[in-house]
Amino acid sequence: MTKQTRHLIFAATLAAALAPAVAHAGFYSGDELYAVCTTDKDDKTFFEKSYECVGYISGAVDAFNTTREANKLKSCIPADVTISQLRKATVDYLGKNPKDRAKSASSQVFAATRKAWPCPAGKPATKKAGRKKR
């Protein structure tokens, strides 16, 4: 099998794994994300579910950070945080807050990251100083 063929198979597998997340759009719940992220390692769908989990979480965090940048706000998540750390923080949060899992998955990822990496006290991430409008 060539390297290009392996890449195509990987891309197709990843796309198939992420398809349910796209189909649910804004209606993907914390319960659904928690179920995907906690799939047993012996489950035949573990590989696909793992990619769905990290794909959803990293996409949500990228969207949050893009929105913050567009509003001239700084992210409070350190630049050296890994996708694995984002996944762990999200799964831990979802595990400890089962009542909130009925809410949207994206809101739960946001809550998890804010809890794990809060903005420094007394120095909230605010708009950068600029020219005042008159």
UniProtKB/TrEMBL annotation:
InterPro entries: Rap1a (IPR041238)
Keyword Phosphoprotein: no
Domain Rap1a immunity protein: 29-119
Signal peptide location: 1-25
Annotated coiled-coil segments of the chain: none
Family matches, as Pfam families: Rap1a (PF18602)
Top-level division of the source organism's lineage: Bacteria
Keyword annotations from UniProtKB, A to Z: Signal
KW Cytoplasm (keyword) present: no
Protein name: Rap1a/Tai family immunity protein
Lineage, uppermost ranks: Bacteria, Pseudomonadati, Pseudomonadota, Alphaproteobacteria, Sphingomonadales
